[in-house]
Fold this protein.
Amino acid sequence: MKKTGIIGLGKMGYSLLTGFMNSGALKEEQVWIFDLKKENMDKANSHWPKINTGESVEEIVEDADLLFIVVEPKDVFNVLMQIKDLLKPETHVISLAACITIDNISNVIPSMITKVIPAVLFKHQAGVTLMSHSSRVTSQAERFIEKLFKRVCTLRVIKEQDFEAVANYTSVGPALIASLSEEIVATGLKYSDISREETEELLLLTIKGTIKMLQQEGLSFANMVDMVATKGGITEAGVKVLDKKFPPIMEEFFNITLKKHEDIKAELGKKFE
């Protein structure tokens, strides 16, 4: 039974822990957690009493086989400097820090390194996790960590250089979909007397039904549009507006988010030089 350490129990750290615990992918007794906020560890212990809580980062790292670093990107360097002399070469370090590259981390610690970007949906055993391995990771370690994540969610192993673009519709996806849905609801309320609660429920039921039909019938998104937006019909007239207005908005969305990633990468990367 591998000792698994988790440093950081913020939103993402807690989602990660919840996904592993509720899926049974990890056993409580093998997990060690640490967060600067004791209440975050107390919350975890209230749900999973057999989880081990550490008094320090060093205690979590000692003899760890798997070590998840789930602190804010700006804090990663300091954590690595704190633990670098305690890590074994065979310890597998898994970073969830956006904008911190595998090369950045490799410059500080001698361990095997894997980078993952899960979605907040991970805690519900759903969504997609992106993964990329450093050249130090053995094939056995790759198989183990990939199998671990596949017990919780859908996993895609991709090139690290593609992380940000793909994350725009995996880890960012829930916020993107929710934001678009909010705009549909807000606009719809202007044209009917139905309550916000009922409007949201109707849209959610429609989204669920659409997903079900796409999956069960093996349809593409374009297929669905063609089925609903019949030629010369009302829906087609509305879709033509979206076809004209929406692509530039999505282009701007990707350009702004990817530029933001590059700016933060450059700034944080200076610490690792």
